[in-house]
Amino acid sequence: AAEEPGAAFSSAWRREEVPEKPNYALKLTLVGHTAAVSSVKFSPDGEWLASSSADRVIIIWGAYDGKYKKTLYGHNLEISDVAWSSDSSCLVSASDDKTLRIWDVRSGKCLKTLQGHNDYVFCCNFNPASTLIVSGSFDESVKIWEVKTGKCLKTLTAHSDPVSAVHFNSMGSLIVSGSYDGLCRIWDAASGQCLKTLAVDDNLPVSFVKFSPNGKYILTSTLDSTLKLWDYSRGRCLKTYTGHKNEKYCVFANFSVTGGKWIVSGSEDNLVYIWNIQTKEIVQKLQGHTDVVIAAACHPTENIIASAALENDKTIKLWMSDY
Amino acid sequence: MEGDGSDPEPPDAGEDSKSENGENAPIYCICRKPDINCFMIGCDSCNEWFHGDCIRITEKMAKAIREWYCRECREKDPKLEIRYRHKKSRERDGNERDSSEPRDEGGGRKRPVPDPDLQRRAGSGTGVGAMLARGSPSPHKSSPQPLVVTPSQHHQQQQQIKRSARMCGECEACRRTEDCGHCDFCRDMKKFGGPNKIRQKCRLRQCQLRARESYKYFPSSLSPVTPSESLPRPRRPPPTQQQPQPSQKLGRIREDEGAVASSAVKEPPEATATPEPLSDEDLTLDPDLYQDFCAGAFDDHGLPWMSDTEESPFLDPALRKRAVKVKHVKRREKKSEKKKEERYKRHRQKQKHKDKWKHPERADAKDPASLPQCLGPGCVRAAQPGSKYCSDDCGMKLAANRIYEILPQRIQQWQQSPCIAEEHGKKLLERIRREQQSARTRLQEMERRFHELEAIILRAKQQAVREDEESNENDSDDTDLQIFCVSCGHPINPRVALRHMERCYAKYESQTSFGSMYPTRIEGATRLFCDVYNPQSKTYCKRLQVLCPEHSRDPKVPADEVCGCPLVRDVFELTGDFCRLPKRQCNRHYCWEKLRRAEVDLERVRVWYKLDELFEQERNVRTAMTNRAGLLALMLHQTIQHDPLTTDLRSSADR
């Protein structure tokens, strides 16, 4: 019998019993961006929250008190994605000016600019060792960069449509990439070979993909308002999560493993949806934003969710739960 | 058939050769001769060929003729008219002054626009004028006929009006030779004192056929005109108030002229004046601006080329909005090849871009009469164009009020909850301070050693020389063993090896400089760096002063000075004894003071560096802490706490 996804996650139990539903409540609203926020990420050490926006800046906030810390200037056009390195000292940001920038958080300076893509860079991520950066772009390719030198090590002609998401697994050996052509491909990070192709849906663009924390499953989101959890080695879809609205934007989704095991995702109906991983039912809907919730991130150690919305709203909200 | 009679083909029988009288050669022309060796011209309706001499048309004239009909055909059918070409190759022939058939044909010529320039060009007023008066201006859509056969006794400069993509060469505007000097394009020209930013031909010289619609000029009585014509390209400041007046004068003149040639004038421009509704240039037009111009906001008469009020519906906001969307979609579609529609993007960036550009324009475009009110508190004056305020003061007042209003609240918000970054900062500062302390103590230690060393050296100097002891060094030195000098590579006796190498090294080192631009300024440090100024490279020597081979020469050693080096047993233990050999002779302890001093100095320098680093860190942390709750940061960002009890999202265990 197939492994239950829930049991495979590393546990961080606070209580004995698994509670049925979380009780996320709005705690803080962070105001400061002057245009739509495109992405929010917590730092791996849990101290900071980085948010990228269409106003071409990245703002760093304190994760626990929500206080503004720093603004990183440098990009010429809107920023689509931002990612932390594992030691929380560096950020990489992907922008419409066809470049990626590596920032030193402490000083706020841009360390390197990675040039090479031919079209908007849409998504980026560090590998767990933070020696490599993977980026996906509208020019249908995935590039692997070396952090130290800023050089592009490999270019994978990955897809036939814009690449919407790229992610390393927790070992750093595999890269998953999802694209508007409806395919999810898994690559060997060292050689650049494509190991597996998952035809998620032929006609539907895949708007987001991510490895699960244990690396066995992939979470994909397609533009028919469906999230699916796949066992990619067998190519089987194990769980499907629906109920939210996602037909236009590439909305982030996340695994929440600090308390109960949830799947957290934004939605185009201005709510944040939380599903129980196992039972697939919606356990909570967080209300408060006034525009599409494009990004939702989960804190690495606490039961905190950060959500960000588009230009009608421009705020980031922090929600906290007891479990 | 082209009336180009230069190559007369053997014609078919025309109507004149009614009788094929069995002659071998067909006959032509009114003279009914078969002669085909002279120049002939063929009628385009009856296909009969005529000798140029018989009908008084020279080859040259015919070159300019496009369609030619013989007199009979023209009499039979009054509609047929001779058409001329308007080519560069057109030439005027003075011989054609005589009134002959060509003259009559010339009567059918169209010369609708009595262009004063042209009159001048043609020279004599009487001949041409008469000709022109005779010519009945008939409405013709095609471009007006040029003065092909116009006689002019003295040839003016043959104006070969060139044709190009934007110049037909034949219309009123193309014929103008001089810039009016009053239209917006002229005023932009360098020769009229302009900034040369727009760089377009004079409005009155924009070809009526081929120029861009928005560049053209239409007299007020004519068909509707897109207001954006007189607007410069988007994002540029609009013309100031003085400008309309001279151009308006010009307009009146033009209108007068236009009246002379009444309908004929109207038609060609009208025909070509279909405004292209949504061309790219028009899109950024502001309908408000247009209204203002129409209302004659600047002066009583309004601008001649925009006075037509019929246009207001043409560019009402709805249309403009549509115009915007069109461009928006067009640009997007350009980017996406397949079905990458804009919905796949994370946010509407293009829209935002465009919106951003629009807003400054909107502000720019207002004129005083309908400018918005200045936003300064209590101010009732109109705002400056391109600004929200009437003056700097108002802007400052508003900013001050804004700060007074918002800042206290933000500060309160900030202080409501403990700032975690502050705590971190404080901890960091603590650490840095501790390190600074330790560095300072090390420094003191160094100083102490320094002094000690000096004392030792001093004491050693005071020793008397006892040469007798140990005059012969206990050296079982193998003199046949040769050591190679590190610097110069020569073999040397090991006994003098140290001495030699020191000297050798100094020799090479002194040839290089090592310095920085800044003199050393450290309080409390007695002697560290050499700091000798090198005027050539404008640097201060940054070697250790005791060691610098470039700038400090070894002092001459007097004969009785003792070496004085503290002797050690087993390398580390001091015996308390000193080497008594004269310095000059001692080969073992050559330069020992220098080296020891250098050692101590180096340590001191290191400690200073460390301190410097710590200062730097402290400074960084301090600035970060102050800027965090700085004015700008507070005004731009806000953290709203919904739950006053939970100010810190960390669960208490982790703290």
Automatic annotation (TrEMBL), chain A:
Lineage: superkingdom: Eukaryota
Keyword tags: Repeat, WD repeat
Matching CDD domains: WD40
Database matches in InterPro entries: Beta-prop_WDR5-like, WD40/YVTN_repeat-like_dom_sf, WD40_PAC1, WD40_repeat_CS, WD40_repeat_dom_sf, WD40_rpt
Listed PROSITE patterns: WD_REPEATS_1, WD_REPEATS_2, WD_REPEATS_REGION
GO molecular function: histone binding
SUPFAM superfamilies found in the cross-reference section: WD40 repeat-like
WD repeat residue numbers: 30-71, 72-113, 114-155, 156-197, 206-240, 241-285
Residues covered by the WDR5-like beta-propeller domain: 29-319
Any one GO cellular component localisation term in the record: Set1C/COMPASS complex
Family: Belongs to the WD repeat WDR5/wds family.
Protein name as it appears in the record: WD repeat domain 5B
From TrEMBL, chain B:
Pfam family, one: zf-CXXC
CDD domains reported for this sequence: PHD_Cfp1 (cd15553)
UniProtKB keywords: Coiled coil, DNA-binding, Metal-binding, Nucleus, Phosphoprotein, Transcription, Transcription regulation, Zinc, Zinc-finger
Entry annotated with the keyword Coiled coil: yes
InterPro entries with a match to the protein in the record: CpG-bd_C (IPR022056), Spp1/CFP1 (IPR037869), Zinc_finger_PHD-type_CS (IPR019786), Znf_CXXC (IPR002857), Znf_FYVE_PHD (IPR011011), Znf_PHD (IPR001965), Znf_PHD-finger (IPR019787), Znf_RING/FYVE/PHD (IPR013083)
Basic and acidic residues bias locations: 90-120, 334-344, 358-367
Domain CXXC-type: residue ranges: 159-208
Any GO MF annotation of the entry: zinc ion binding
Composition bias type Basic residues, residue spans: 323-333, 345-357
Classification via Gene3D superfamilies: Zinc/RING finger domain, C3HC4 (zinc finger)
Gene Ontology terms: biological process: positive regulation of DNA-templated transcription
Localization, UniProt: Nucleus
Region listing for Disordered, in residue ranges: 1-20, 84-161, 218-284, 323-370
Coiled coil regions in record: 429-463
Biased composition range(s): Acidic residues: 1-14
GO CC, alphabetical: cytosol; nuclear matrix; nuclear speck; Set1C/COMPASS complex
SUPFAM superfamilies assigned: FYVE/PHD zinc finger
PANTHER family assigned to the protein according to its UniProt record, in alphabetical order: CXXC-TYPE ZINC FINGER PROTEIN 1
Stated role: Transcriptional activator that exhibits a unique DNA binding specificity for CpG unmethylated motifs with a preference for CpGG.
Name by which UniProt lists this protein: CXXC-type zinc finger protein 1
Chain's gene name: CXXC1
